[in-house]
Amino acid sequence: MGILKNFNLNRFNGVQAFLETGTQNGVGLEYAHRNGNFLDLHSIEINEGYYKYCSAKFSNAKNITLWHGNSIEKIPQVLNAIKQYSSCLYWLDAHIPEDTKEYPFFTENEEIIFPLEKEFDLITKNRDIKNDYFLIDDLRVYIDGPFQYPFNSHPESKKYKQKYPNYFPHKNGINFIENLVKDTHDIEKIWDHEGYIYVYPKGKKL
After folding, report:
1. What does pLDDT average to over the chain?
2. Confidence band, pLDDT 50/70/90 cuts, at residue 101
């Protein structure tokens, strides 16, 4: 799980909308709500327990909308809800949905466990992203690199690698991102924590 607090959201002043995949306990969404200047915030959570928890947590926040379901199904609906905004910051953090004793969740569907490729494809095909920014968590799922916390430091790294042989790293790295935005955006790899990807419009790094 990434840490949105690693980023100063004041740099995105002027970006109107915020879209998060993977609400979990709402820590990132709360940070974006309090520290960003977003007019409209949306977050998608597949785990019903976390969705209900955050629905209560943010019940008084008029500019926050929570969506229950998997991100691949919900993204087109959220994009329609923010179509009036010319710019959006995406915080994409929906991979490996949290399964806890309090809020259990289980799936063997790899498209739900690792939805980033489909998420990114849906966003680029359903919205003009020329003014949009992306922060993507857990780069170590896709490539090797000098991460602060490399994949092999995870206590269950061997189990994950055996269970998901197409990841850690992915055989095609982040080519799916590079191919979709190469004409409009630049890509920066950030090695803090488990790694992040920062995707921003060419010449408009904030």
Report:
1. 93
2. confident
> pLDDT tens digits for 153-192?
988 899 889 999 999 999 999 999 999 999 999 999 999 9
- The structure tokens 């994949």 sit at 151
DSSP for the chain, written as a single string: ---GGGS-GGGGTT--EEEEE--TTSHHHHHHHHHS--SEEEEEE--HHHHHHHHHHTTT-TTEEEEES-HHHHHHHHHHHTTT-S-EEEEE--SS----SSS------HHHHS-HHHHHHHHHHHS--TT-EEEEE-GGGT-----SS-GGGSTTHHHHHHH-TTTTTTTTTTHHHHHHHTTTEEEEEE-STT-EEEEEETT---
